[in-house]
Amino acid sequence: MSDFPVTIHHNPACGTSRNTLAMIRAAGYEPTVVEYVRAGWTRPQLEGLLAAMGARARDILRDKGTPAAELGLLDPDAGDDRILDAMVAHPILVNRPIVVTPKGVKLCRPSETVLDLLERRPASFTKEDGEVVRL
């Protein structure tokens, strides 16, 4: 177990999430992987992540490939309470991946954003699509 814990809230169906996880591992970490679509969210868990990020629920709301539009969550008047309730009911509404380390909490889009949260970087990294990440 590392003295620098890394947790990734991960969706294996998402290329950005897979790249982020691979980048963490390439840097020499074995993170705690939370497959949040399966595990679900609790409201206190989401509120804690948002507080640590200094973000609002809308900031991590995913609209592509989710029921966000049909639930009315894209309406500018949809408040955080409504969005959070929907995220608990429909975990896919949370954008991904969210990474937690002692250096902070971030929605890691693009995947190389995770590098700001790590103490060490991989020697090199190439994304699934062949893009070479400049480290």
Unreliable stretches (pLDDT < 50, length at least 5) are none
Kindly estimate the percentage of residues that lie in beta strands according to DSSP.
5-15%
How many angstroms does the end-to-end distance come to?
25 Å
Order of helices and strands: EHEHHHEE
Number of domains: 1
CATH H-level superfamily title:
Glutaredoxin
The overall pLDDT average reads: 96
> How do the strands of the widest beta sheet line up side by side?
2-1-3-4
CATH fold name, please?
A: Glutaredoxin
CATH architectural label: 3-Layer(aba) Sandwich
Number of strands: 4
Characterization of the model:
The protein is of the alpha+beta class. It has a single domain, classed as Glutaredoxin (3-Layer(aba) Sandwich). 27% of the residues lie in helices and 12% in strands. It contains four helices and four strands; from the N terminus they run βαβαααββ. The chain has a four-stranded mixed β-sheet with strand order 2-1-3-4. The chain is globular, with a radius of gyration of 15 Å.
